[in-house]
Structures are given as structure tokens and as C-alpha cells.
Amino acid sequence: MRYIIPAALVAALVAPAPAAFAQASDAARAPVQSLCDGLIGIMKGGKAMGARGRGAAIGPVVDRVYDVPLMTRLTVGASWNTIAPADQTALVAAFRRMIIGQYAVNFDSFSGEKFSVDPKVETRGTDSLVRTTLIVPHDQPVAIAYRLRVSGGSWKIVDVFYRNSISQLATRRSDFSRVLATGGAKALIRHLDELSTKSGN
Amino acid sequence: MSFGLVLPTIALLGAAPEQQVAVPGAAPVAQVDSQTGQQTTPPAPPAQPAEQPPTTTAAPAIPLDPLIDPAAAPDTNAAPLATTVSVNGTAVGHAPGDPLEGLNRHLFAGYLFSDRKFIRPVAMGYRHVVPKPVRSGLRNFFSNLGEPIVFLNDLLQLKPGRAFKTFERFVINSSLGLGGLIDVAKSPNLGLPHHDNGFGNTLAYYGVGPGPYLFLPIIGPTTLRDLLAGQGDDFVLPIAIGNPFDRLEYQIPRGVLSGIDDRAESDSDFKALLDSAVDPYATLRSVYLQNRAAEIQALHSRSAKAGTTDPLGDPLGDPAARQASPLDDPLNDPAAPQSTTPANPTDTPASATANP
Fold first, then answer.
1. CB contact under 8 A, B277 and A175
2. Dihedral pair phi/psi, residue B195, rounded to 5°
3. Percentage helix, strand, coil, to 5, in chain B?
């Protein structure tokens, strides 16, 4: 009898830890994996799908795996709070459309590419970092990492790092700041919509 | 010019499979000097602002700056980005790290114009007329001539192992590779790929900051440090060897050729930049500076065995301290209502709700 208690106690203390860890890591990897799968899907769809078709296919995936509203806010920065609510909503929509349009334009053909998602998930504070590699036949592999944060009970992508170093958010912040400063949210929305339209989405 | 990098990057989130591959540091046009033809890697120029803290880690540590929802923390960082002063409609100051923004933007616009009218057509013509093996042969040849400079800088950065590899690479490519025309050394069996290095990296390695960001007609995106150091790189061969290298008859054709070649190779990236950025100038700057920062951080990552410092890791980082690097500012979600932050003029943490 005596032994049982310590054993149970030990089990209780030890077991949950790895289990919880495994869960957290799988939970953070899952959205990244499904994004990768979605991208391979539209690449295979290729020209036949058309830019609009590829956008339509990747759109729901983007909605599921990205925290687009948060990304928009992070990109805009502190001036977010000075933007009228209607413009905020429009900005989020424009940002979403831009992400989708970019995917549709850039992932438009398939020649044997593969994504490998690193099983090891790194943690930074409350965020997780999931690394992936885009393997391109006859070419250099490309490192793409995702930063995720929990939102609404699930892990959502909030930033993407190209080559492990170039942050999408940082880049977009720089991209947007002048237009925001000079023309405000409305000008930015207009610019983003123009870009999306050009991309066929 | 690092247009190459840009696009893919921009492709928000992903990089177009094809584009990504090798985006050569594209030097716009003729570079009389500058590093020898570099491969598909980022540009040679060095460093970027805020990156002194040698970080160590096996896997490249991705600098995660604290992302704070502005909605949550209204103003904490209102400032970082906003070195940009916007006056009414137009007048805008400059972004952090880019005090010469006004001038740079003019030069960038001028570059775009001449690119459209002249540079790109020439580069595309070159690509169509000259067979690929010849183009890559020339690129390899000039790149190989730059290996001694890489070697020298490997040594200056106290990396004998790397220097030795560079040396081997140079010897192999100069002999088996027919004077550098063929990059045999990078083949998987030999495993000696090119890496960029130059005085800009060395200066950065020893703590010299980047100085102001510059966009220059022939050189493309760079910083004051990298520009000056790049001139230094260009003097190595003329001084050490002299003859053909110190002749304009050599330098000009070489510069023109590699400039055109770089432009041709990075065409899809450049187009992507223009097509996907709201403000291509600022996007290019951001990508360039981020990439340089990462390159310089990588220089340290081998030497500093110390700890895994993640400079951007803590959410409490003082925004003011980090302004130097556009990379560094804490990303705070403006919408997130947060208590910590003191005064915000404008924003009442209203938006917590607003932004689902």
C-alpha cells in the first residue's frame, strides 16, 4: 500500500509534463502543417485553378491558421487605436485579402516542392516558433518559420520569418508606415486593395 | 542589390518556390567595384543597425521581438516606428536608421526610372542572348576572384576554419573549376559552397554600427559602413596584385557585366517587390536591413559560445533603446487593452473588442 501512493504521485507529477508538452507542440504545429498542405494544394492546382481559384482555395486555410486581425494591428502599431472602427474592420479585410493574394500569386505551380515541418517547437514567452523548410528540387531549401500565439483557444500564426530572419510583420510595418502617416488608414486600405486586385484576388 | 531577397519575403508569408531560390544580390547596374560577383546570396554589404549582441545558438535564432497587441498596449511603442513624423498631408520625416530618407527616396525613384528605360531592357537582353552556362560561368569567375577577400575577412574575424574552407574552395575552383568558371566546390561531395564576407562584415563583427541606410544608384541598398567597407574590398586585388585588377579596362567591363547579370537574375524578385509592396522603397530597406542584421548575427553565432541571448525576447524591452533597428521594435498590438502602459493620448483601450 505504501508504495502505491508514491508511485501514483510520481506518475501524476511526471506523466503530465511530457504529455502536456507534446500537446502544446502538436497544437502549435497543426496550423502550420495545414497551411503547408494548403499551399502544396494550390501549387498543384496551378494554372488550371487560376489566381482567383487558388485564392479561393487558400482563403479558408488562411482564416483558420492566421490571426489576421492581430497581425493587422501589430503591423499598424500604436496608431491602430486612432483608427475609426469601420476603418479598422476594412483594414483587417484588406490585409487578409493581401495575404491570400500573395499566396495565390506566389504559389502557382508545382514541381515537386515539399514542406518539412520541424517537430521541435520552440517557445518564446507565450509564443511558439515552428520552423519549416521548403524543399525545392534542384534548388536550395528555403527556411520559413512561423510565430504563433494562442487566440481563442487555439494557436494562430502571427508572423512569418523568411530565411529565419526576415520578419513579415517588420517588413510590412515598414511598408505601411509612410502611407499610414501621410494618408491614414483609408489610403492604406486603398493601396492594399489595389495590390490585391492586381494579383487577381 | 538585394532585390532578390525582397520579393520572396514580401510574398508575405511564403516565398514563391521559384523565386526564392537563388536570389542573387542584384547589383543594379554596373558596379565598377564592389564585391565580386556574388552568388545567389544576399548582397555582400554588411551590417545593420542594432545588432551587436552576439547571440549564440545552433539553429539560427530568430529574433522574436515582443509582439504586443496594440489594442492591448496602446502606446507603448507608438513611438518606435514613428520616427516618421507626419505632417499633414505630406511631409514625412524619416524612418529609424534612415536619416537620409528624403535623398534616398529620390535616388530610388531615379533608379526605378532608369531601370525601366534602360537597365532592365539591357539585362533582359543579356539574359536572352547569352546562354546560361556562359552567364553562370562569368558569374562564377568573378565570384571566385573575390574569394581571397572572403578569406582575408574570415581570418580577420578569427575564423580559421572558415578561412581554410574558403582557401580550399578557391584552390579547387581555380584549378578543377577551370579558373573559377565552374563552381565545383559547392557540389555536395565537396561541400564547400560560397559564403559572402567582406570588410563590412568584419567591421560589424567588431562592433561598428551601420550608420545611415543608403540607396545608391549603382550599388543599391547599403549602409554607410557597408559602402565604405565595400570600397575597401574593391581595393584588395588592385593593391595586392595590381595588373589587370587596377585597370579600368578590367574594372569597368567587370562592373557592368556583374551588374547586368545581377539585375537579370533578380528580375522576378524585383518585380515581386514592385507588385506586392505598398511602398517598395521602405520594403526594400526593411528587408535589406533585416537580412544584414541576420548575417551579422550569424557571424557571432559561431564564436560566442556563451548563452542563448535572445535580444528580442522580452516583452518589456525599452522601445526607445531599440529604435535603431527597424527590426527591433516591440510589436505591440494597439488594440489590446493593457494596463501596463501609461499614458496614451489618443487611444483608449477601446478596441479590445473591436478587433476580434
1. yes
2. -130, 145
3. 50, 5, 45
Walk along chain B (356 residues) in steps of 10 and give the mean pLDDT of each run: 43 36 36 39 39 44 72 51 42 78 95 93 95 93 93 94 94 92 89 92 94 91 94 87 85 89 90 90 94 90 44 32 37 54 38 40
Q: Which residues of B touch A76 (CB under 8 A)?
A: 70, 334
pLDDT of residue A126: 85
- CA dist., res. B23 & res. B5, Å (int): 6
Choose from B278, B309, B327 for mutation: most chain A CBs within 10 A: B278
Out of B74, B84, B355, whose CB is closest to A181?
A: B84
Cα-based distances in Å from B291 to A55, B51, B214, B231 = 29, 11, 15, 21
A119, B26 Cβ separation under 8 angstroms: no
| Residues in chain B within 8 Å Cβ distance of A59 | none
A-contacting residues in B 329-348 (Cβ below 8 Å): 331-336, 344, 346-348
The order of strands in the sheet holding A166-167 is A114-124, A127-135, A142-151, A154-162, A166-167
Per-residue pLDDT tens over the stretch A92-120 = 999 999 999 999 998 999 999 999 999 98
Ranges of chain A whose pLDDT falls below 50: 1-6, 8-22
Q: How far is B299 from chain A (nearest CA, A)?
A: 14
- The model's pTM is 0.74
Contact B301, B56 (CB under 8 A): yes
Query: Is B60 in contact with A164 (Cβ distance < 8 A)?
Result: yes
Burial class (CB in 10 A: 0-12, 13-18, 19+), B140: buried
Q: Which A residues 11-30 touch B at CB under 8 Å?
A: none
Phi, psi of A196 (to 5 degrees): -65, -40
A137 interfacial to chain B (CB closer than 8 Å): no
Neighbours of B188 (CB within 10 A): 6
pLDDT value of residue B187: 87
What's the CA gap between B7 and B102, in Å, rounded? 23
